[in-house]
Structures are given as structure tokens and as C-alpha cells.
Amino acid sequence: MAIVWYGVPPLDYVDATKIHIPMQGHFAIDDAFFPIAQADALDAKLTAANVPHEFYRYQAQHAFANETALNLPIAAKYDATAAATAWQRAMAFFKTHLS
Predict the structure, then answer these.
(1) What is this structure's pTM?
(2) What is the per-residue pLDDT across 35-71, written as a single tens digit (0 to 9) for each?
(3) How far is Cα 74 from Cα 19, in angstroms, rounded to an integer?
(4) End-to-end CA distance of the chain
């Protein structure tokens, strides 16, 4: 089981056919560092390989769940509402897959 926050690996290095664990992802629609199109492409790649996953997109910026995001050297902004929703979903995912 894996949970991804914000970032997306270079898709050329992702062989989704070798992923056999459930995944969850949390991505910011207005992420200047990792464009949402990258998350969408990863989502499509995982779907095509039948990888069990759920991706969530938030109307937020990079590092939306990081309360200290203002100190980052990139465009980022903490969003309490998006963070709370993402953490709730992540904890439910853990409970489902670690029980």
C-alpha cells in the first residue's frame, strides 16, 4: 500500500504493470511544481495497468497540507480544508488496507 502526496515521478520510469499494491494520491490542481496533468497521466497509466488506486484532486496549491508551506522556496500555500479532507481520506485508506 502506498499514499502519494503532491509529487509525480517521471512517467518514463513508471512501469505500472509491476505495481501490485493499492495506491492513493493527493494532488493540487494549481500546483506550480507538479502540474496536475502529470497526476492525470499517472492516473491513466495506473488505470490501464489495472492497478488498484484512488486519486484525489484539490483546488489548492503545492504543499496544501504542509502548515509551514510559506517557508518553501516554491509557490505553495497551506489549505486547511483540503488538508483536513486529504488526511481523513488517507487515514481511512490506512484503516482499510492495514486492518
Answers:
(1) 0.91
(2) 999 999 999 999 999 999 999 999 999 899 988 866 6
(3) 31
(4) 12
